[in-house]
Amino acid sequence: MNIIGKIWGKHWRGESALPWALGINLVLLRILILWSDQYTLPPYIPARAEALAATIVFCILCHGVIYPWQVVGVLRAIKRRNGGVNFNVWVWAAYLSLMASLVFTLLGLFSAYQSLLPERFIVEDPLALEKARANQYTLRLGPDGRRIYVSGTFALGLTEKLSALLAQNPGVTDIVLQSDGGQVYEGRGVAHLIKNRGLNTFVTGVCKSACATAFIGGRQRNLGPRGKLGFHQYGLELNFPTALYDLKGEQDKEIKFYRGQGITGPFLDRVFSSAHKDIWFPNQNGLLKAGVVHKIIPAMSN
Predict the structure, then answer these.
(1) Cβ-based neighbours of 49, under 8 Å, separated by 6 or more
(2) Can you give the residue range of the structural domain that contains 274?
(3) What residues does 147 pair with on adjacent strands?
(4) Residue 220 in domain
(5) Helix (H, G, I), strand (E, B) or coil at 189
(6) Does 102 share its domain with 135?
(7) Distance CA 183, CA 132 (A)
């Protein structure tokens, strides 16, 4: 405490060297204070009453006590120095730093105020996101208990829900697919789920992208007379690039899986050649020849 008291008193009286008073006691300390402000707010303190109390204590201590000490110490250090090498440069740097510190402190206070508004603490349904995802697809058990119909977007959670439905209905032998695609991981997850359970796959309408991967997981793969399988390069629904997602690597995983399912080389060379915004629909003869489809079947009844 004696050391802290000495440092406090020395700065307050303006006895610290101006570079130290400015760089350490003002700039560095203010940066640390503004950075640590987040720990008095959600999500670190989720309850509004507790976050509000922590923020008030923080503001009184850091902005009401420490900040005036920082400012006064720098101003007194300027006055005490009053000349010397590069004095004018240090004075300008000090005044600019003081103004910047005031701006950022006010912004920090405004941000804390915004974070503590009552509407920010409205309790939301913890299952809302899962429900929203589930609304993007449909899983339906056929009347005979042998077929599950999968339609809609391959959204997160589809593989898990399909696995649960299969566990409840061990007599299922067939999966009927219709989808424009969706999440790469879900398409792959459904494909491996179908493969591991030895299920047959059917497409009578359109099955693209992630859905086509799921179809290829089938033990016996069947295509209706109007069935179409679509393939294209993978892409990200982002407005900016990211180095954390290896699209080529993900496509290579699918190629390896397709090859393991008996699909031939020429088809594999073409499967991801179409741009993400485009789609390649091979004809039925080409799909049969490549081993993607085992059989063209008549129209199915639901």
Answers:
(1) none
(2) 129-296
(3) 174
(4) yes
(5) helix
(6) no
(7) 15
